[in-house]
Amino acid sequence: xxxxxxxxxxxxxxxxxxxxxxxxxxxxxxxxxxxxxxxxxxxxxxxxxxxxxxxxxxxxx
Length: 61
What we know:
Number of helices: 2
Structural class: mainly alpha
Shape: elongated
Radius of gyration: 13 Å
Number of strands: 0
Largest sheet: none
Oligomer: single chain
């Protein structure tokens, strides 16, 4: 089973990439609200299928 955290509305403590940092800076700059979750890495198509069921999110494989 893949770990999915509770929904959070706060920025990350540590960014994993420059793009991720830029996204959060833009959200703050334009005063856009957001929600996020922490998850384990999904490394197989079986894991992606689990994500597709979570909250109605549709991910194409």
